[in-house]
Give the backbone structure.
Amino acid sequence: AEYKSEEEKLGLGFFEVLQRERERPLDQISKKSRDMTPLQRTQRRMNYAKGNIENKYVMMTTRQYGNSDLLDKDHVNEPPTLDDLTQKPGTFSETYWSKGIFRASVVVIGYLTFPLWCKVFINFQTGDPEEFSVVVGQIAPNIGVLYATLLSLTLSVLYQRFTRIQENVSTESMLLSQITRNLLSLFADEPEWAQESLQIVANQVRIMLSRTRGLELLSVMKADTYANLLAIVDDYHYLNGCNDDFSARKESICGMLRGELQQITETRALRLSDEASSLPPTHFLLITSLSFVSIVAYVTASLEVVEDLNNPPEEASLLFAGLLALYVLFFNFCKDLNGPFAGVYQIKRSNAASHLLQTKWLIVSQLGDKVSFGVNYDEEPQSNDEEESLVDKIKGFF
């Protein structure tokens, strides 16, 4: 219920949030927020969503390592294909900056508005133009060095994060597939144990394919997938390890599962850490500020060679248009790279998705519809008289 409630709030605009706040019953508002007006609560909510600090609104942003439609696809009668690995393109609002027409528009706008820039900044030039050009000549190189340093650092941080996420999710997906094979082998003669453990695996596949980081963090706090799997393996070994029919092969599989679960837990921790390491909006505000100051420095330096403000030299106008286009391009490039799950520069999900589909294929080919991969599986209300799960029975035994 908490997952669904938070996901319903994603993507809402200012006025939509304001309308929801006006219609909220008093019993659904926390005590510390009841003294605030709907407008104040809306402003607080929108400020939280900006991402300068980590909060639930930032954690609930879109994050998928594959096509969520694959969860409901019948892979019993339809084996996985290469089409299942096709990555969805970004929306126009996420990729418009990479279009040729947009870049050409920025160049044209820069060229046409250069005379206007000159007219605006000549009003601020109260001293001798030659003396002021000396000041600009001292400032411009420093601004250029600062901008180049910040841009280089930004791209280095984002590229490293981009690569680490892709590597860690591929490793985690591969380990999850291997764990699934070992669980099927260990519980080959224990259908109840197999169903219970592999439903937990299916839940993790669902989280990685169709859920947000916030939901995964909530599942870690409340019902950690890998901790529950380790508990099942330990309990099975405790209950059956001393039996005469407990073979050396099962003993070996239990040992391998413990090692793999430890490794996959560490890999997931690294992946979640990298997912949270996006740059805040303040960082991009700094890039914008340096870009603006650099443009101002260019315009003020150009005033010395501009005789007619309505018809500045063609060379100055073209250079200004090119400079403006580069700054806009680099800003959008860094902004796009900061979101590795949307836009033009997205992580390549084919490797991770192939292992996740392999995991699903292994489970459905062995257990059929006894294990559910449905998108809304964990959102259905559970009845009070539902039979206890195997894990609950084991906990009761101890």
Remarks:
- The chain is about 65% helix and 0% strand.
- Residues 254 and 325 are 59 Å apart (CA to CA).
